[in-house]
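During the second half of the funding period, the structural biology subgroup turned its attention to how the target accommodates small molecules. The most pressing case was S-adenosylmethionine, which had performed well in the primary screen but for which no bound structure existed. We therefore specified the complex as follows and requested a full 3D prediction, including the ligand pose.
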Amino acid sequence: LDGELLSAADIRELATALGVRPTKQRGQNFVIDANTVRRIVRAADIGEDDVVVEIGPGLGSLTLALLRTAGHVTAVEIDDTLAAALPATVAARLPERADRFALVHQDALRVTELPGPTPTALVANLPYNVAVPVLLHMLALFPGIRRGLVMVQSEVADRLAAPPGSKVYGVPSVKAAWYADVRRAGAIGRTVFWPAPNVDSGLVALTRREPPPTTASRTEVFAVVDAAFAQRRKTLRSALAGWAGSPAAAEAACTAAGVSPGARGEALSVEDFARIAEHRPA
Ligand code: SAM
């Protein structure tokens, strides 16, 4: 059965036939190891009931493994050559499941809707340079996505899964926590890619949660988060002065929210940020 998956030789052959030259700008590092894609699909806990969105299918390594297991896969690819080639790869390798596959040739950050059934899961080896914005965009756009399993740079995986107070806790951690419970789900070495990247990768598992109960909108909450971390070393009193209008107004908003104005953003949970957002002076 595993003959359907792409081997390292298959990837090389496909890339040569298509004249694909992987570029860094597009974060093109293709998985050449069938064990790794199997591991990702297992960790994602995908089944026949799932409608999976995959961002950046590339030559199709992960796509084929997903398609074997999921009810439906919609893949979004920005690259002209890769997007044009993928339907043929799917048709050749998994003809009996080709009708469960849809390809969207677009920049994932510009997607506003997708064809086919409503997505329930996000599984992707994300392009490194846009990994966080793409992840947040998909979670915001498709509330039906209940679970996610994404591969990102190891350092980004740490940041996404970091709890408040941790050294690497920052904007991606807080924003991801708005949508989901996030945890690291394993490490991936460089050798499973072609070309091999110069950083290690990590898996991140996401489980959708209810957003914090707040009268502030997501946009309002995220504005506080951005302001708090824009000057990481500053206390909230001064980091939020611009947002609130003055240091005194920032102090008042924090106090009203039950947060110390002398604290730094890195100590605050997403719930804390949501409460501060509610107390922005009119
Ligand atoms: N999924 C494949 C694999 O695991 O072998 C390829 C993963 S590679 C890390 C990232 C893929 O995302 C590439 O195919 C690249 O062309 C695509 N990509 C880059 N930026 C994108 C964007 N903004 N929207 C959609 N796809 C993008």
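Two results from this model are relevant to the next phase. Strands lie at 30-31, 51-55, 72-77, 101-105, 121-125, 147-153, 180-188, 193-194, 201-208. The longest strand covers residues 180-188.
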